[in-house]
Write a sequence for this structure.
């Protein structure tokens, strides 16, 4: 499976600059790149393709058949050229437009009947502009969605912002998406891309900074966005969990920007990591071992306009648990 | 094939992922697959019974959803369960609906 790294970020947040720098690293020599807007920065790379936003939704269809047309076509084309031996690549980087919600592209990778046999999500990299992000997060839901979808956040233009602004922004990012590590734009390729899918899962499992078992934090009161985590003090029934999360995301996926967590399952010594963006859940990862800390299940949500207490109650009811004792 | 859209190969639901290295799945061998299928139907029926719907397996490869008035629907992919159930029940299944949670907690 070829990993597909999604590079997203608000308009002018430095996506292309970062991409250009990453591509100069010899480690990225085998990367194919899809960009959907030709910016002013020239990209000198042997595999450049252009895509436009184009969501194809079958009119009578369901969520599994929403396909982002040109992304799918571009990836199919790359795969076809590789199969003929005309090109070779070991990863793909897709740069999205500044206003794009990353979810449809992830959905395409998962739902497309051919692509999903050749490509897998390699993680979402979100650039955040140190100077303007604070204001953008205040009134642009897209900015919050992009941050929520991130597996790693790259803080750009830190040299242009006051240091206390950067500190404040880092705190805000940690509250908005506690599951993504934050690096600065001058970090090495390895720091930016290394363990993009594994590192954040460990991060998701870590106890929160207050040492509480649960908390929620308002990210944006006007938009009603908040992060919320819960721990479950006993092994989870995988089948019931699957029914619950599937129904929850079917019904409320548009308001659930992100769900991520680590589960201690009945009859399993090793933990399972869960990773979802809106209606989409990636294939569950069977981790090799528990990260440091207690071996308890923990789920982190980034929500818009949903009462966390209802999610906790719903989880307990679906699992057949007494809420006040088992779910905190 | 997706019975709603006619697109091939939509049945790789995350709860029943194709077994491959690093992926957690009970979809490993015939016995495990059948056992998990039975558990999944029981877990879904616990919720579906709120609207008096019932899910069963159809010929070991599809799902059969039935209403108390005899309406039936056959589909292949687990991802279609809730859209199909909501169409059949006419009212939705909302896991955050307090009436439904009251009912589940009383079971």
């Amino acid at each position: 499976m070829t990993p597909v790294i999604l590079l997203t970020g608000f308009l002018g947040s430095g996506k292309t600059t970062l991409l250009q720098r990453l591509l100069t690293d010899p480690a990225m020599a085998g990367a194919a790149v899809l960009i959907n807007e030709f910016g002013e920065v020239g990209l000198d790379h042997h595999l450049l393709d252009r895509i436009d936003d184009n969501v194809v939704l079958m009119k009578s269809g369901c969520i599994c058949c929403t396909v982002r047309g040109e992304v799918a076509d571009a990836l199919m084309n790359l795969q076809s050229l590789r199969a003929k031996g005309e090109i070779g690549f070991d990863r793909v980087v897709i740069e999205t437009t500044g206003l794009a919600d990353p979810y449809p592209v992830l959905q395409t990778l998962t739902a497309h009947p051919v692509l999903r046999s050749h490509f897998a999500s390699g993680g979402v990299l979100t650039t955040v502009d140190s100077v303007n992000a604070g204001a953008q997060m205040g009134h642009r839901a897209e900015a919050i969605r992009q941050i929520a979808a991130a597996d790693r956040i790259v803080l750009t233009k830190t040299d242009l912002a006051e240091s206390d602004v950067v500190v404040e922004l880092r705190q805000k990012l940690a509250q908005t998406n506690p599951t993504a590590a934050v690096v600065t734009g001058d970090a090495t390729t390895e720091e930016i891309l290394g363990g993009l899918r594994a590192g954040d899962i460990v991060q998701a499992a870590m106890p929160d900074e207050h040492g509480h078992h649960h908390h929620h934090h308002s990210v944006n009161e006007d938009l009603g966005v908040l992060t919320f985590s819960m721990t479950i003090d006993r092994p989870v029934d995988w089948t019931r969990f699957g029914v619950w999360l599937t129904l929850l995301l079917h019904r409320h996926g548009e308001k659930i920007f992100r769900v991520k967590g680590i589960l201690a399952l009945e009859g399993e010594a090793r933990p399972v990591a869960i990773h979802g963006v809106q209606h989409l859940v990636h294939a569950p990862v069977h981790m090799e071992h528990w990260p440091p800390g207690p071996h308890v299940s923990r789920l982190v949500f980034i929500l818009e306009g949903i009462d966390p207490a209802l999610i906790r109650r719903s989880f307990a009811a679906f699992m057949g648990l007494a809420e006040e004792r088992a779910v905190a | 094939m997706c019975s709603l859209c006619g697109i091939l190969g939509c049945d790789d639901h995350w709860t029943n992922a194709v077994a491959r290295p690093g992926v957690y799945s009970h979809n490993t061998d015939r016995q495990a697959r059948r056992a998990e299928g039975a558990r999944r139907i029981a877990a879904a029926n616990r919720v579906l019974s709120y609207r008096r719907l019932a899910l069963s397996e159809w010929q070991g490869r599809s799902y059969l959803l039935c209403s108390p008035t005899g309406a039936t629907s056959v589909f292949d992919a687990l991802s279609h369960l809730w859209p199909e159930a909501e169409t059949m029940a006419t009212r939705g299944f909302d896991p955050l609906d307090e009436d439904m949670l009251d009912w589940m907690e009383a079971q």
